[in-house]
Amino acid sequence: MKAVIAAVLAVAAASSWAALGGGVANLGNHPAASKSSRAATSGASYSILERELDSGTKVREYVDGNNVVFAVTWSGPYLPDLKELLGAHFDTMVAQAKKAAKSERGQVRVNEPEIVINSGGHMGDFEGRAWLPGKLPAGFKPGDIQ
Amino acid sequence: VKGASVPTHPVLREPAALVARLLLALFVAVLAACGGGGDAPPAAATPPATTPPVTTPPTDNPPVATPAANVATITVDRGADGTAFNSPFVTVTVCAPGTANCQTVDHVLVDTGSFGLRLMAPNVPASLGLPSVTAANEAPVAECAHFATGFMWGSVRRADVKISGETAANLPIHVVGDATPPFAAIPTACSNTGSNFGAEQSIKGILGVGLFNQDCPACRASAAPAIYFACPASGGCTSTALPLASQVANPVPAFAANNNGVAITMPPVLLGGAPGLTGSLVFGIGTQPNNQLGVATVYATNGRGNFTTNYKGVNYTASFIDSGSNGIFFTDSSIPQCSGFYCPPSPLTLAAVNSSSNGASGSVTFVAESIQALARSVVVANVGGDAGLSNVFDWGFPFFFGRTVFVAIEGASTPKGNGPYWAY
């Protein structure tokens, strides 16, 4: 797979619908953005929109041919706006975190048929990724989410 | 399926498991008689090692430091509401600055993965009168502290912080869930980061004694992280930049002495876990007879507080040691999972190699036993869980069993160089 930097995007002022499962997230503040186009092994094409927020945290959104975000990642010193990034699935993460508060301390994991969310790291360096197992392009594997 | 985590299996065990435990106990007893170190167990004949592996020999510290001004006792129990698991607690006293008007708070979680003292508001009575930290516009300051499991929201106030015989005077601390106006409403820039971790009942606070001095270096010049908020009396908190001196801070660097880091010592935990455990949080590194580095190896961290762990041939470059994580969280798709933790059919002895930019490298042997094999009475055990991340190996609290782990603070001088580093 060859990454091709296609364009630097002018980020839309507002997205009409939420991120994961919809259009790209509205993260405000005109963060620097780059978009690369890729192809899964099957040939299905998708693109990766990467933005570095003003906080220094990097956010990536994996977008399919119909402009639907099917995976997101975050990495950096401060948590991003996960409600905007995860869309409707943010509530699933919060519910799981509340449930897990009495068990796992140190990370949050959601592993449902329709949504997978992994959030970890520590104060000063957070890592996370989420994807929609039913909406991955043909040939795309969760391991392709970097 | 996720959900219940408290061990549900009865105390009854299979005979084989019992025999294994007896063998292990015997083995540990022999080791102890030899001074606690010695050769590694033969691989096949013995149960998983819960003593320090031979590759990381114990330091010359006593297993648990004797009472001293720079030693706080760590207690591992069920916590404030009976649900805590693998959680190390200390007792902390906060006083209105310069006064004898004080409050002592037990069950404060010792956390090497964060920085600063955070107390749940119900444990900090308003009668203490802790003064608010203020922003440039004189508005009182609140914080949205980020954790991997969610956020903590509340006011930032100054207090004299006393732990054992050490005092950090006039230190900004986080009063979590402070419902006093104008802090009552959580701004969406905070609540949009995750779950309100501040509502957790099993801990009364978090004592962040990790590698760094403050929790938001970028906030010195920028409001973008949305960590600190100015909350004017007129209402509506807005994110703000805040000088380092006003930020919630690791108390250790603010001590008059023994202020370059900490050493945490816990005894070994046998297979099957234990109904409780006592260890020590020692302040200072190489400043007293009870906190000497001895033969401990120094692992420098990068600027984010990480080193590299190699597990089964994969490098995890954002790895860390975190007493506030209640398991060792790593990725291994070959191990079955139950309610967030691994539940192998029989205990696994696993190995990984930690390495750092200073050239240090060493292998670590650790044990993952099934969360479901633990008796109800158990509050501390060698358990692991799936991190689900491609670059993170989280050495949680079980890593501390049978070890002394040193945490040297950024920029602080120690006999083996400046922090930030871990040594063990």
How would you describe this structure to a colleague?
The complex is a heterodimer of chains A (146) and B (424). Chain A is globular and about 40 Å long. Chain A has helices spanning 82-86, 90-100, and strands at 4-7, 32-39, 45-52, 58-64, 69-76, 108-111, 116-122, 125-131. Helices cover 11% and strands 36% of the residues of chain A. Chain A is built from 2 helices and 8 strands; from the N terminus they run βββββααβββ. Chain A is mainly β. With 424 residues, chain B is mainly beta. Helix content of chain B is 5%, strand content 33%. A 6-stranded mixed barrel of chain B has the order 2-3-8-4-7-6. In chain B, a hairpin with a 2-residue loop joins strand 5 and strand 6. The longest helix of chain B is centred in the first third of the chain and has 19 residues, at 15-33. Chain B is globular, with a radius of gyration of 21 Å. Mean pLDDT of chain B is 87; it is low at 1-62. Chains A and B meet through helix 1, helix 2, strand 6, strand 7 and strand 8 of A and strand 5 and helix 2 of B.
Describe the secondary-structure layout:
The complex is a heterodimer of chains A (146) and B (424).
Chain A (H helix, E strand, L loop, with lengths): L3 E4 L24 E8 L5 E8 L5 E7 L4 E8 L5 H5 L3 H11 L7 E4 L4 E7 L2 E7 L15
Antiparallel strand pairs in A: 1-2, 2-3, 3-4, 4-5, 5-8, 6-7, 7-8
Chain B lengths: L14 H19 L37 E6 L11 E8 L6 E10 L3 E6 L20 E7 L2 E14 L2 E11 L11 H4 L13 E5 L18 E3 L7 E2 L21 E6 L10 E7 L14 E3 L6 E5 L2 E8 L6 E3 L6 E2 L2 E2 L5 E8 L5 E8 L15 E3 L7 E2 L7 E6 L4 E2 L2 E2 L2 E3 L1
Parallel strand pairs in B: 3-8, 4-7, 15-22, 16-21
Antiparallel strand pairs in B: 1-2, 1-12, 2-3, 2-6, 4-8, 5-6, 5-9, 6-7, 9-10, 11-12, 11-23, 13-26, 14-15, 14-19, 17-18, 19-20, 23-26, 24-25
